[in-house]
Design a protein that fits this description.
Layout: H1 5-12, E1 13-20, E2 29-35, H2 60-67
Antiparallel strand pairs: 1-2
């Protein structure tokens, strides 16, 4: 049976202690906990996106095709 994330979180806690303050009449407690922390390596880097060809937009047929219109020959 696979462990749930709550179970694995519980396994990462090594010790937990509660300490009272010097003034014993307060209800404030300090909690000290030691936990097992591991840093995951980063995934592989992906190639940067290619830049669009803006010079192709100077052509009327490309503009019209991108806009979904019919290319009309200039008069």
């Amino acid at each position: 049976m696979p462990l749930s994330s709550h179970d694995t979180d519980r396994q990462d806690v090594l010790t937990t202690r509660v300490m009272r303050r010097a003034e014993c009449w307060t209800d404030h407690l300090m909690v000290r906990s030691k936990q097992l922390m591991s840093i995951q390596p980063r995934g592989p880097r992906t190639a940067p996106n290619k830049k669009p060809n803006y010079t192709a937009l100077n052509s009327l047929t490309t503009k019209d095709n991108l806009l979904g219109k019919r290319a009309i020959a200039p008069v």
